[in-house]
Amino acid sequence: MLTKDLFRKPKNELETSAKERKSNKVNIPDELFINCPSCRKTQLKADINESCGICPSCGHYYKIGARARLEMIADKKSFTEHDAKLTAVNIISFPEYDEKIEKARKESRECEAVITGVCKIGGYPCAVFVMEPRFIMGSMGSIVGEKITRVFEYATKKHLPVIGYTVSGGARMQEGIISLLQMAKVSGAVKNHSDAGNLYLTVLTNPTTGGVTASFAMLGDIIIAEPNALIGFAGPRVIEQTIRQKLPANFQRAEYLLKTGFIDDIVGRREQKAYLARVLKIHSGGRS
Amino acid sequence: MSAYDKVLAARAKGRPTASDYINNIFSDFTEMHGDRRFGDDPAVIAGIAILEQTPVTVIGLEKGHDTKEKISRNFGSAHPEGYRKALRQMKLAEKFARPVICFVDTSGAYCGVDAESRGQGQAIAENLYEMMTLKTPIISIFIGEGGSGGALALAVADQVWILENAVYSVISPEGCASILWKDAKRVKEASECLKMTAGDLKSLGAIERIIPENENFAAVYKSISKLLVKTLHDFNTYSEKKLEEMLKKRYRKFRKIGEI
Ligand SMILES: [Zn+2]
Known about the structure:
The complex is a heterodimer of chains A (288) and B (260).
Chain A: H1 3-6, H2 13-26, E1 33-35, E2 42-44, H3 45-50, H4 66-73, E3 80-82, H5 97-108, E4 114-121, E5 124-131, H6 142-158, E6 162-168, H7 176-195, E7 200-208, H8 210-213, E8 222-225, H9 236-243, H10 254-260, E9 265-266, H11 269-283
Parallel strand pairs in A: 5-6, 6-7, 7-8, 8-9
Antiparallel strand pairs in A: 1-2, 3-4, 4-5
Helix pairs in contact in A: 6-7
Chain B: H1 3-11, H2 18-25, E1 27-31, E2 44-51, E3 54-61, H3 67-72, H4 80-95, E4 100-106, H5 113-117, H6 120-132, E5 138-147, H7 148-152, E6 159-163, E7 167-169, H8 173-180, H9 187-193, H10 198-203, E8 209-211, H11 217-235, H12 240-255
Parallel strand pairs in B: 3-4, 4-5, 5-6, 5-7, 6-8
Antiparallel strand pairs in B: 1-2, 2-3
Helix pairs in contact in B: 4-6, 8-9
The structure holds zinc ion.
């Protein structure tokens, strides 16, 4: 595993998350320079964009948007988006939620916290969903659940594999029980897709937590994760409050999940496209 | 009663817990322990029993009664092995064509180091996934607190019922207030906003039936027992075709939540 020598381990989860929060403020679209939250070196944003969002000095993985991810994995001009116009709705009239949606739309330049569609990877056709961290922390509301469910239903009908990238703070509390029930809804669509003999692969990225971990993130036939990605049901702060103890440094990180048997492998950003193409190739002679 | 009053009622000391329902509604309850993977989680009670003349599988999230029992049951907050024990019993229910009846009462799945390292998220996800196509009727009854994914993991059911003063929510009102407004004191407001009471849940299509409460819980047990008998009779899943219809309906029921 290249991860251990390339990436400095954070001292503890709280320190990292605080730093990452700060760095998000710097990380507005038109900023020219950016301070790496891990090694603190000032870097040209263009350089980081060139290197798949990986810090050239220390190898830190920046959070990257859904479109940038798609560009990294999909063959050129192969992506066709589904349901692009579906946008979050204030389904239970939760206070200040409309404003939050508006702000998220501006910051992310997306209509919701997930992009779905079909594309080719290394020439192999597949359905994809990619979550967007800048849209209310990639949280899952009714539209996120609806879009992912639809892409699974489409893939089931067309006998396509599904590749899904997750990044999420969990179910979106502003949609109350409706967001919680999206966990069941999407899981059901995943089950039908699976029962029809189709492949589902998830790529867990930093952070994948809450209701997304406890539903479709953990349901892949193959589950891989990015180096050092935080993956868990409860967030580290909630756990520390519950048990009133500091957590071990590597706790809930991808390397820990690999060791405890919950993911198949850790795959770096630069290697992901080749990995996905290889897995799709191996499954391309399937039952259908 | 305000939404927050209902939250308090759902958590009230002395409110019957899952084992009270199990003991009062079924006969011949025979408890089964363990997930055959790691251990036995006392926060989940599971076993087989008879409802009138029908063999059933019964599963409950159990908070416990006195302090000692509460501690031993981890206040009804399950670890992954609890959800896996439940799923194991559900699979046996499918094998022997027994309906599954779940009693939900939990502030949430446990948030601890052991729970995480044994795959809390994976365990809940697997229950949602498997329950959606489990080939036997599932009825879930919310009797107190229905806390988030840890409650949903026993509630992907053909019918979801809720006691009049029980609640079911994506997050606790305390958690919601402190995350959104950085002010845990705004818990009353959060309780209203989250639409977590029986009436709200019914109008949002999250549950099928509200069960009226009564000072005298014996009457409540009796009404649940009657409803269960009638509902299971109506399911009539003895033919393969009926079973397929039931599963389609189960999927459609969740599929339409938030459908555009
Ligand atoms: Zn760096």
